Amino acid sequence: MLQTILFWIFAIIGIAGAIGLIFNKSAVYSALSLILNFFSLAGLYLSLSAEFLAAIQILVYAGAIMVLFLFVIMLLNVQDEQGVLKFDPRQGIAFLIGLAFIGEMLFVFKDFAGTSLSGSFAFGQVEAVGRELMTRYLFPFEMISVILIAALIGAIVVARKHSYH
Amino acid sequence: MEAFAFSVESLGASAAYMMPLLVLLLTGLVLMLLDAFGIRRSLAWVAAVGLVISAVWAWSQSDPTSRIVFFGMMETGGIAPIVHVFITMSGIFSLFFVHDYLKRQERMVSDVYALLVFSVLGMILMANANDLIITFIGLETMSMCLYIFASLFKTEVASNEAGLKYFLLGSFASAFLLFGISIVYGMTGYTNLSMLAEPESLARLTDNLPLFYVAAGLLLIGFLFKVAAFPFHNWTPDVYEGTPTPLAGFMATGSKLAAFVALGVVMKRLDFIAYDKVVTILALSALFTMIYGNIVAARQTNLKRMLAYSSIAHSGYVLLGLCAADIGFKSIIFYMFIYTLMNIGAFGMVGMVESKHTDTDMESWRGLGLKAPYFAGGLAIFLFSLAGIPPLAGFMSKYQVFISAIREDLIFLATVGILTSVIGAYYYIRVIVLMFFNSQGKEPSFNLSFARLPMAGIVILVALILLFGIFPSLILAPIEAAFGGGVSLTALP
């Protein structure tokens, strides 16, 4: 019962955050709405007893990434978006396709909502995640470092001043 | 927890099988360090040596029975070694052209070598994955490097456009793929491909057909974007145009080979061929990709854009092969390998003609055959091969794909494929006519690059195209052998 109530609270806040992200004209407000969305997702994770995931969600996304994001927005002094909501036939088509996609998803997930995964409650906790990361998911865990290196090089290539020699 | 029972020893054995991949990782790191310490003269050679060692090592591990290593994450044996070698070769052949191109563009960015090696690593991870998580990580590693290639010349508008477009659309497509993977995980509880191929998991997928179709559709969107198939092709010409030309050749070959193999493996394990609707979607995509790619390519006046649209068209032929079940899968590996040879050659040569101030407009190629007949002759061979003229290898690869489609009763698609490749022949041969027979007394103004390394690359690629065109069994036999023993993709522990 409590879980259902919590779910609805977090879900509504999360969706409100997502809508705020899209419809705010100011980039800073959009970023703040995204943080709201991240927090409510963390709440959802908590209610599914995935404490570790919830903590990571807040630390990494809401903490590190979004702070960086806000810094960038403020440093670049991004102006409010003008005329984003003006109608354009292509946007109309995109809107219709998006609507069809949402309808499709709702239709499909309608039957799926009741089923639950057979996972133990330790599934999302630090110990279980750590054990899985160091055994079964060791290889992907290590390979993610390659993505990070590539992204690092990319950032340097794009950002540095004198890249030709 | 589940059916896996991996002992600690298997980790050691797994590590032995992963050595070719670790060689790539090490090469990439060494390249980064050399660059950081200012030793930049022989970076291309270091990269090439690393790639060759990795390829030879992988080839030495070839084994008809496939093994699952690293807790079911990767596949070795079966088709894995040959795919590894083909992807590495795409990287090696690109290296012939990259250094010279960057030098003449006066934009030496020495980070490309490390990135190239890392993206080869990502491609191999993606293609030889036995777990959708690895497929995704491989795809992201590969894409991350390719995004940077697209935006390498950051002072140029075209390059900025290419980078931004590719990055935004690519991330979007990755999200679709991830969404598909998560639905598959939600339905079965597995991301592991060999666990998904178990009858029990397949039954769970079939239990809720609408959801399965959504998952399959999302997975297809992710993959079809990466191979630039209709209707997810729009990014291709702009991105290839803004990317340094030899790297665009690499992008069009290695990444597509990896994505097609990964798609083929996923299709095989999740048994997509058994679902009519999924096959119909693939077939429609193949149909429109072939028609669209060829017709629009015929209308291009810029050589680089023409090659980009033609690479869309080639994706269509490969998709046609994918619709043709098992035989088709063999044929597309052959096709993509041959395509790698001729496409890297073609892009490389376009890059050799380009200089900092000339564009790749077709008009400026007029009369090249009279000024530099051997050079233009080399390009003509690549173009003839891309058009599928016998006795060049491009003919054999097309033949293999079409014949396997016909064997699987995809007569209509195969007919469309053959008809559209006639259009293909038109626009490839038009360039040749322009170079040799239609000079209108004009002399091309650009100065050609006759650096030794790219010339050696062209000679090798032309020789290989002739060789595999006349003796296709040199490549077909190893592919057959890789599939043959124990039919690697189905008989899994």
* Morphology call of chain B: globular
The ordered H/E elements of chain A are HHHHHH
What would you say the CATH architecture of one domain in chain A is? Up-down Bundle
- Which range best describes the helical content of chain B: under 10%, 10-25%, 25-40%, 40-55%, 55-70% or over 70%? over 70%
Strand content of chain B: under 5%
Radius of gyration of chain B: 22 Å
Average of per-residue pLDDT values of chain A: 82
Secondary structure class of chain A reads mainly alpha
Structure overview:
The complex is a heterodimer of chains A (165) and B (493). Chain A has a domain at 1-78: Four Helix Bundle (Hemerythrin (Met), subunit A) (Up-down Bundle). Helix content of chain A is 74%, strand content 0%. Chain A has helices spanning 2-23, 27-47, 51-76, 89-110, 126-134, 138-159. The longest helix of chain A is centred in the middle third of the chain and has 26 residues, at 51-76. Chain A is globular and about 50 Å long. Chain B is mainly α and 493 residues long. In chain B, helix 13 (276-298) runs antiparallel to helix 14. Chain B is globular and about 70 Å long. At the A-B interface, helix 4 and helix 6 of A face helix 2, helix 5, helix 6 and helix 10 of B.
List keywords for this structure.
heterodimer, A: about 160 residues, mainly alpha, Four Helix Bundle (Hemerythrin (Met), subunit A), 6 helices, about 75% helix, about 0% strand, globular, B: about 500 residues, two-stranded antiparallel sheet, 21 helices, 2 strands, disordered N terminus, disordered C terminus
